[in-house]
Amino acid sequence: MTALHIPEPVASFIETVNRHDDEGFLGAFTVGGSVDDWGRDFVGRDAIKAWSDREFIGSQGVLTPEEVTVSGGTITVVGDWRSNHANGRSAFTFEVDGDSITKMTIREG
Question: pTM value?
Fold first, then answer.
C-alpha cells in the first residue's frame, strides 16, 4: 500500500492527536481557531479544550488516515477514528493558514 502524503501542518497535527498531546493539539490552532464537530461549533482555544477534554484528546482518540484530498488551503483527511467517545469512519476537513489550523470540521467519512 502506498503511503499517504498528508501536507503540513495537518500531518504533524494527526501525529500530535494520536499521541494524546493536549498542549500540542491546542497549539496547532490559531488563537481564534474553531472546531465544527457535526454542526456543533467550538470557537477559541478554551472552547476547543473543553470539547477535546471530553470527546477528542481526553477520550484517547486515534485517527488512522485512509484518504487525503487537498484543495487550495483546505486539506481533508478521511480515516478510521477510534476513541472512548465515538468510533467510525470520519472526514476531518482542515482550513490552514501557514503552519496553523484555523478550522477543523468533522463529518461522516
Answer: 0.94
pLDDT for the residue 4: 86
Can you spell out the DSSP letters for 29-46?
EEEEEEEEETTEEEESHH
C-beta of residue 33 within 8 angstroms of C-beta of residue 103? yes
| Sheet order of strands, 29-37 included | 40-43, 29-37, 100-108, 87-97, 74-82, 62-71
What pLDDT shows up at residue 1? Answer: 46
According to DSSP, the β-strands at 40-43 and 62-71 are unpaired
Place of cell 484518504: 67
**Amino acid identity, residue 94?**
F
